[in-house]
Request: fold
Amino acid sequence: MEVLGIDVGGSAIKGAIVNTLTGELTAERFRIPTSQPATIDETVETVCKLVSHFSWKGKVGFGFPAVVQNGIVKTAANIDKGFIGVDINKLFSKATGCEVNVLNDADVAGYAELKFGAVKDFKGLAIFLTIGTGIGSALFSNGQLIPNSELGHIYLKNGKKGEHFTSDSARKREELDWVTWGKRFNKYLIYLEQLFYPELFIIGGGTSKKLDKFEMHLETNCRVEAATLLNNAGIVGAALLA
Ligand code: BGC
Reply:
């Protein structure tokens, strides 16, 4: 079956048609940059442009950078605050005329990694982390997603919020080198490890391509793997969970 997967990000909205049996993209990915943060109107307009680009009439799955519970946006850490309380399923389905399902961006990306990535079918407790503007997380136990975990918002022992201390935007904002950032990220992982005792961390987002630059600073007891679907994980997972 084919489903259009759309990944709503902090600075762009990307989409592609996905074969949900193989996880492969059947049409080339299309990316439209947006303002940072984009207003509700701009987001809806951009989503509609993507749907028209693919002349799509079928199901659409979305990854959205917030807690989304039963179709309602509950948080807005890095997006327009006006999204809080919006029935995003209703908004996107009305605007596109398609059947839609909107879920948290990290949840869908993590799901794609567990279905089609290098850690395919991992059964133990796994924590997927996507390092970008914020830090998104997805928890899996026995391959089952426990939705809407917000581990980027955990306060570390130094009083700082995880995503403010060690996101990719923190690295850029504070011009941290990989050694300094890697040591910060290590503190964050160790703290999560003490709280959840996972058997695997999967690191996603653009930073996962740079794992070789900081993995020597990671001192967790559990396995740490880079995500393998990279930029397409959000699109693929959104389509799979539609
Ligand atoms: C949001 C999460 C989201 C993550 C990655 C965080 O700031 O609270 O819901 O998954 O950013 O986009």
User: Anything to note?
Assistant: The mean pLDDT is 96. The chain has two domains: 2-107+233-240, 121-226. The radius of gyration is 17 Å. The CA atoms of residues 71 and 88 lie 6 Å apart.
